[in-house]
Every structure is written in C-alpha cells, then in structure tokens.
C-alpha cells in the first residue's frame, strides 16, 4: 500500500490534469504535455515505492544467504574442534583445519577484506586453552575456537 502522502500527491496531480485538460483554449501540445506529466506524477510514487521494497527484499535475501554460508563454515569448524578435542591420533586434522581456514577466508573476502582481518585477529579473545593440550594441539584448538567465535559474531551482525 502506498503511503498517505503519495496518494494525496497523486490525487492532486490527477485533479490538476483534469482541470488543465478540460480548460478551454489550451493548445493540444500543452494538453499532451499535461497528460504525460500526470502519468509521471501518478505513477512515480508507486514505482519508487516498489523499487524501494524490491531493494529491501533483495538485501534481506543476501543477508540470509550470507548467514547460511557462515553457518556452514561454523558447523564444519565445530566438527573440527570436536575432533581436535578428542585425544585420538590427529595426524590429518591440522591440515583439514588449515584448509577450512583458507576456504572460510576466501568466502569472507567476498564480504570485504576487513572480515578476513577480524577473522584472523585474536583481539579481545581470552587466553583459554584446552586442558591437557600443549604445543601444536593446544595452539590449533585455541585458534579454531577464536575463529569460530568471530564467525558467530559475523553471523549475528548479518541477522540485523
């Protein structure tokens, strides 16, 4: 539905056009110009309103797609975190974490370079470590946990 102001403006344009078109002594070329201006005045607000709503819907759909992608990377990262928390042989988990981080950064780069910078940053993160995990395992777990925290922050950001 068009806002009240648009309806009033369109009504006024139609009224002026009717008065102008029915006025005696108005040359035909002026009547054509008056008719064209009336069509523009009446249709303009409707077209503008439609375009605005279309852009809003497209932006919402894009946010939803972005959140879906982020959710996909979060789910993969959580699975990797579960694997590294297990005290089993983890010979290939480190390479898969590195691949996950590269794929995630590639996607984040489509959102803008600042997302990659924030994804890599540990600023504001606590120093929590996995109990009993030292060296490479502890370092990978902490990095993965921090990256997942960032992805969840990004997801929240796109929910608005």
Percent range of helical residues = over 70%
Helix count, DSSP H or I runs of 4 or more residues:
5
CA radius of gyration: 29 Å
Runs with pLDDT <50, length 5+?
none
Mean pLDDT: 80
Distance between the termini: 25 Å
Please give the largest β-sheet: none
Strand segment count = 0
General shape: rod-shaped
Q: What is the H-and-E element order?
A: HHHHH
Number of domains: 1
Computed structural class: mainly alpha
Classify the beta-strand content into a percent band.
under 5%
Please provide a written account of the structure.
The chain has one domain (4-157). It is built from 5 helices and no strands. With 160 residues, it is mainly alpha-helical. Helices cover 79% and strands 0% of the residues. Helix 2 (28-85) packs antiparallel against helix 3, helix 2 runs antiparallel to helix 5 and helix 3 packs antiparallel against helix 4. The two termini are 25 Å apart.
List the helices and strands and how they pair.
Elements: H1 4-22, H2 28-85, H3 93-111, H4 113-120, H5 135-157
What is this entry, summarized?
The chain has 160 residues and is mainly alpha-helical. It has one domain.
Quickly list its features.
single chain; 160 residues; mainly alpha; 5 helices
